[in-house]
Amino acid sequence: MPLPIFLLAVLTTALASAPLIAFLTLGWYVRYREFENSLKCGALSAYLQRFWSKWLIDAINGAFPGTLATTVPSTSAAASQVDIKEWCSQSEDNSQLCDQLFSYIYHQQYGLVPFVPPYCILVVMVYAASAIVGWVYMCAPCNSPTAATCLFGLNVPGILAAFGGAYFFVASDSVLAVRRRALNVSDIYWYSLRLLLAIPFALIAGAIDSAGTGATLLTFVIATLPLGEIVKQVRRAAAKNFTTFEAAKDRPDQLLNLSGVTKSVSQALQVEGIESIEQVASADPVTLSIRTGFPFRFTLRLGSQAIVRRHLGDNAAKLLPIGLGDVVPIYLLVQAMDGKGPPPIALPPGAVPEPDEKDLVITNAAALLFPSDVPAQREAIVKMKFRQIAAEEYTLMLAKITPLDPAL
């Protein structure tokens, strides 16, 4: 290989690899510490009870996944060793076991090892693409740079635009993902696919502009677009006969009803398959935060609002002015209403806000939710709804994760 081509390939490969190396050596650990700082003691136990109960029971029974990954005890065996009423309290008393289990789950779901295969593939793809660009450029005749080459009949500007646009997308998107600490294994596979599709995109652009006057510019523009945007435009072009009836069936975005959700946030959730409020309320907040790149506390607040809307529907927005749009304030109100006092969390005096006139708060909330109903009837309904919200597993988990933040 000629030295200029080799230097070009090495330089572009190093530039594409630098953000990924920085993430795997620093950013990944910072992200892991973020979850560790939020999930401590009882909060971690509550999270494992909510989303990883089977593994937690197995760990309490001695079948820790890190040591017995190939031998998983049956459900009946787990139930015979630990009473279903006792494993929750045992997990709360054994914080070290919960820490080890969470570390194992996190490394299995989002560890460093799964990044190795796609990273190697991406390095090979970037090196090969750079070598192709250098070889085509050096072999092209100087007196006719726009002449067709042996690479599917494309000219040199078209090939440079295709690979340049693809490389621009890979480099910019990877840097953005590393800055957000939201780089996933699937993203690196997408980068390799984008480089692989550079030549087909150039052929498509050449077919669209057969005269060749704007094919180079069109190739570069297509290559820099995200694959999701390209698929959207293709579907839009294929749906020219979209009828009014089909348009009416397309429901509005439910996620925009949540406080703090913008169109970009909603699109990020929809990419991960989260399209409804019910899905937000049911999703694992750690996994969802990893896949979307959202801060963990923000993801928890989305789930908190989704729980309230699950029980109250669109009327939940009416409770925002009085601070009951999230589950933790409702949980604290129910605790005070039932005379149970503060939640079973070791906190300094006055750390948890307690309502002074809880009956007036219930009356106000009932008037906002059901203004046309009989006062006694609507207050009874609101109390029932609030108790249902307070009894949710997600609510109990958030009450331990965010006891000092009433906004959550």
TrEMBL record:
Membrane spanning stretches: 6-30, 119-138, 158-176, 188-208, 214-231
Lineage: Bacteria, Pseudomonadati, Pseudomonadota, Betaproteobacteria, Burkholderiales
This protein's name: Uncharacterized protein
Keywords from the named record: Membrane, Transmembrane, Transmembrane helix
The keyword Membrane is assigned to this record: yes
